[in-house]
Design brief:
By secondary structure, this protein is an all-alpha fold. 81% of the residues lie in helices and 0% in strands. It folds into four domains: 194 residues, MFS general substrate transporter like domains (Growth Hormone, Chain: A), CATH 1.20.1250.20; 54 residues; 188 residues, MFS general substrate transporter like domains (Growth Hormone, Chain: A, Up-down Bundle), CATH 1.20.1250.20; 55 residues, no CATH class. It is built from 19 helices and no strands. It starts with a helix and ends with a helix. Keywords: Cell membrane, Membrane, Transmembrane, Transmembrane helix, Transport. It comes from Roseomonas alba.
């Protein structure tokens, strides 16, 4: 291929795979600003809406570990083309979905394609660039990859306000088709030398079963109660499948995810921090647009723009984080990044209905700067600790931990948000016992309704409904505060494995 296309081939193939990667990454974050509109369109609550985000992340987690076998068996070109076609199909299904079930199916297909595509970029760069130029190529590739989620929510907000929420799912299709055309021309085909690696079918099925049962059980618990038989069966099935997956991976000769990697202390600590970072990053990206639209009344465009400064900051900080990874022990940038992200979440714990726009944007920016500092050291520290024969699987395992953390973070924060909202609604309702302040408010509302010509029999019910909406809005704000506090606490807990990494 290099002989056919000349010296520019390296950049052509990198650009081809980057276009497809950007399309899939856009779909991961762009949907967050559309969730309130989707909830209104289908009449669903947060327990169903969060599955639209977590289904994508769970599918990415499952298929990411398939990438190595797919490329070894079918080559980069065919793997990339199949993933792009699957992504386009998932986008069409999501955009045309008649109900939330079909929408979640479309998101699963999108996520499965994203998991197959995202590791390809690094593989291609290592194949076509000499060692002395890989760093610059990875830097260029990373800027495009990081820029996509930075701009995604803002672009998604504009689309939602201008063309409706369904159009959001079609945004990545033109990029994906362009990437498909370039990939068919420039990506290398399968190598015919060597023995094809055996597919770990039982491991893959056990992993998918564990993830599906776990996420379904967490979602069912919100609707049917945590002690219901259905929830117990689903969570029990998830536990059994997870244990079975670990036992199988220990005994098979071609594991998808080698559990022995986690016997290396530095690697295990880096993976644990990656899990927390995934939960904190994806969880906060889920919470902020939802808060801005449901509590502060922002439009989708304004809520999306709220995330843009933080995303652009990550683009600028990543190269600095790479230099820090080369000059300092991993625990130092990782610990500093966790402190910054935790500080950001602690500041978000003070949000209110009157918090200024730029205050929220700056609080988010602090956390993303911390993530940019920590991410390169987290990856480098994990892989440096492994023997060379495990480096390939270690890279996939670190990405797996981060993506799994993202799926769990969105799911668990959604549960915390809903349960704390119910708690605060009950607590605030208990304070409204017909006291003079409550009675005065109801009388004032009834007088205003009378001035507007509302019939007398309807005034009392309308005034009580107004009070109920006030209490619900206040309870929702307090629940968001509790959710951000939970993010700060898990960042603080992640300092424990960082401290362990410091030990020689």
């Amino acid at each position: 291929m290099r002989e056919r296309w000349g010296a520019s081939y390296r950049f052509l193939v990198t650009f081809a795979v980057m276009i497809g990667t950007i399309a899939t990454i856009l779909s991961a974050t762009i949907v967050n600003v559309a969730l309130p509109q989707v909830m209104g369109a289908f009449g669903i609550g947060q327990d169903h809406a969060q599955l639209i985000a977590t289904a994508f992340l769970a599918a990415v987690t499952s298929t990411m570990l398939l990438n190595g076998w797919l490329v070894d068996s079918f080559g980069c070109r065919l793997t990339y083309a199949a993933a792009i076609i699957l992504f386009v199909l998932g986008s069409i299904i999501s955009g045309a979905a008649p109900n939330e079930g079909v929408l979640i199916l479309g998101r699963v297909l999108q996520g499965a394609a994203a998991g197959m595509i995202q590791p390809l970029g690094m593989q291609i760069i290592f194949q076509v660039f000499p060692a002395e130029r890989r760093g610059a190529a990875m830097g260029l590739y990373a800027v495009g990859v990081v820029l996509a989620p930075a701009l995604g929510p803002a672009v998604g907000g504009v689309i939602v306000d201008g063309a409706g929420w369904r159009a959001v799912f079609f945004l990545g299709v033109p990029f994906a088709l362009a990437g498909l055309a370039l990939g068919l021309v420039f990506l290398p085909g399968p190598s015919h030398g060597g023995q094809r690696r055996r597919f770990d079918g039982p491991g893959f099925l056990l992993l998918v079963l564990a993830l599906l049962a776990l996420l379904t059980g967490l979602s069912s618990g919100q609707r049917e109660g945590w002690e219901s038989n259905r929830v117990m069966v689903e969570l029990g099935l998830a536990l059994c499948a997870a244990v079975g997956f670990v036992l199988w991976e220990l005994r098979t000769e071609t594991p998808m995810l080698n559990p022995r990697l986690f016997t290396v202390r530095a690697f295990a600590c880096s993976a644990a921090v990656g899990l927390v970072y995934g939960a904190a990053l994806f969880g906060s990206t889920y919470l902020v647009p939802l808060f801005a639209q449901t509590v502060q009344g922002y439009t989708a465009t304004r809520a999306g723009l709220l995330l843009m400064p933080a995303g652009l900051a990550m683009v600028l900080v990543f190269p600095i984080g790479g230099r820090l990874a080369d000059r300092f022990p991993p625990w130092m940038p990782i610990g500093a990044g966790l402190l910054l992200f935790g500080t950001s979440s602690l500041l978000m714990h003070g949000i209110g209905t009157d918090t200024p726009y730029w205050t929220l944007a700056i609080w988010m920016l602090i956390g993303r700067i911390g993530f940019g500092f920590a991410m390169p050291s987290m990856n480098a520290g994990a892989l440096r600790a492994l023997p060379p024969k495990w480096v390939g699987q270690g890279s996939g395992a670190v990405n797996f931990a981060r993506q799994f953390g993202g799926a769990m973070g969105v799911n668990l924060l959604s549960i915390i948000l809903e349960r704390r909202t119910q708690f605060h609604v009950q607590a605030l309702n208990d304070t409204q016992t017909g006291g003079p302040a409550t009675r005065a408010l109801l009388d004032q509302v009834e007088r205003l309704l009378a001035q507007d010509g509302v019939a007398e029999p309807l005034r009392q019910a309308a005034a009580e409904n107004f009070l109920s909406q006030m209490l619900l809005s206040q309870a929702s704000m307090l629940a968001f505060r509790d959710s951000f506090l939970a993010v700060a606490l898990i960042c603080a807990a992640a300092l424990v494995p960082v401290a362990i990494m410091r030990r020689r």
